[in-house]
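Re-run with default settings, no changes from the original entry. Doing this only to confirm the output is reproducible before filing.
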Amino acid sequence: MDFICCDCPRRCGAFRGEHTPGGVCQSPALPRVVRAAPHYGEEPCVSGTRGSGAVFFSGCSLRCVFCQNRDISRHSTGKTQTVPELRDTLLRLRDRGVHNINLVTPTHFSRAIAEALDGLELGIPVVWNSSGYDSVDTLKRLEGLVQVYMPDLKYWKSDPARRYSAAADYPEVARAAIREMFRQRGAYVLDGEGMLQSGVLVRHLILPGQDLAAMDVMDFIQEEFPAGSVLFSLMSQYTPMPGLELFPELQSPVDAETNARLLSYLERHGPDAGYWQDGSAATKDMIPAWDGTGIK
């Protein structure tokens, strides 16, 4: 599976061998998994009562200075899995009774993941839980293999994307990716228990000083897609992490007044369907233990 990688929007052209890390993501071609277990921290239509079957991959093609999962996103940690081993991980997790298979930060392992999913009968939805920094070509490789797309839309403008994630092109790339995701899946579908079976759920994490961007993101979802066809999640869980000395504006949580103002905007202007968090979500308790749970 050795290849020269241009799979993410950075198109860095790095060599990635099966066990040889390379590129901005600093990852090999074969996926590295750090945790595979039921997860209850997603939106209600994803976590439900039995949990979302979250498979956390290490490495990432973004470099978000505020990343809560930096212990795994900045390092190629975890257990390297072959395609058959990854299939076995997904099946074991399915057999635990989870509502779905939730692939967390999967973009840089898209080739191996697509191969693992091809012909695999899981009987539950597969969720692509990404940063939103996905190339359209990579997403087309996943068509028919992924039922639910759950991307972030982190930034509306290039300057904060460059400053905080070293990706000035993030806004245009993410918008194009979300359009492709919607082209593939169309309007969202819930089952009789209110669990998401198909469609797109866009997330936006409120960042300190970026309230206008949050409004722009909400306007985009409301105006770009047919009414009530895309789910939206306004997230208030921003938690300052160590190492932000060069970013003083990010060293405090979002204040309650800003959260309330954006929630009011969501209620008045849409999007029509979705979720929001209150400020109590801003805690390190949201971060799972990277202890190899569920990996053989």
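The mean pLDDT is 94. The two ends are 21 Å apart (CA to CA).
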